[in-house]
Design brief:
The protein is built from 9 helices and 8 strands.
Length: 207
């Protein structure tokens, strides 16, 4: 089974596509964003370190990310890396403990990213995710599942989203050339409905 890297700026739909790919293809889904948010919620030393970077829309240092990922996936196959690596240093570090067989890049515009993420709301009680444009709750500000209050994450505010996009393009875009040169990269247009994106990615995986 292949190890696959799913790349794209925040808001490209990586998490949505990755979760479904994990279910239907049997991947171990590794999302560094989810792992970091869990550490922040638990207020661990790693979470305390990462929180400041995340709230400013900046990247968490490579060595922190790499050590966390390695503990989970060392020498395993069938891994789907969701939004990792994000820098060349992370890509080179990943190769020391996991082989990458395919890289899929979800392409999306800055304007679409800001529109999508600034509309996202999360239940503060159960963690369910909504989007005011594409998946609104039945009652404004209230979770359909548990009745908890919906909140906007600090890193989903428009000015932070724009900053996150700029940071991504500056620090992570060189990965595209790196993987393209190695013949591993496949580009998928993500400015379209999630079902269409999923089907396009699935075709690449089955090829």
């Amino acid at each position: 089974m292949k190890n696959v890297v799913l790349l794209g700026p925040p808001g490209a739909g990586k998490g949505t596509v990755a979760a479904r790919l994990a279910r239907e293809f049997g991947f171990l889904h590794v999302s560094t964003g989810d792992l970091l948010r869990e550490e922040v919620a638990r207020n661990t030393p790693l979470g305390q370190l990462a929180k400041g970077y995340m709230e400013r829309g900046e990247l968490v240092p490579d060595e922190v990310i790499l050590s966390m990922v390695r503990q989970l996936v060392d020498a395993k196959k069938g891994i789907l890396f969701d939004g990792f690596p994000r820098t060349l240093a992370q890509a080179e570090g990943l190769e020391r403990f996991a082989e990458v067989d395919l890289v899929i890049f979800l392409e999306v515009s800055r304007e679409e990213v800001v529109r999508r993420l600034s509309s996202r709301r999360v239940c503060s009680r159960c963690g369910a995710v909504y989007n005011l444009v594409t998946k609104p709750p039945k009652a404004e500000g209230i979770c359909d599942l548990c009745g908890g209050p919906l909140v906007q994450r600090e890193d989903d505010k428009p000015e932070v989203v724009a900053r996150r996009f700029e940071v991504y393009m500056k620090d992570s875009a060189p990965l595209i050339a790196y993987y393209e040169k190695r013949g591993l990269l496949q580009r998928i247009k993500a400015d379209r409905p999630p079902e269409e994106v999923f089907q396009a990615v699935s075709e690449v995986l089955r090829a």
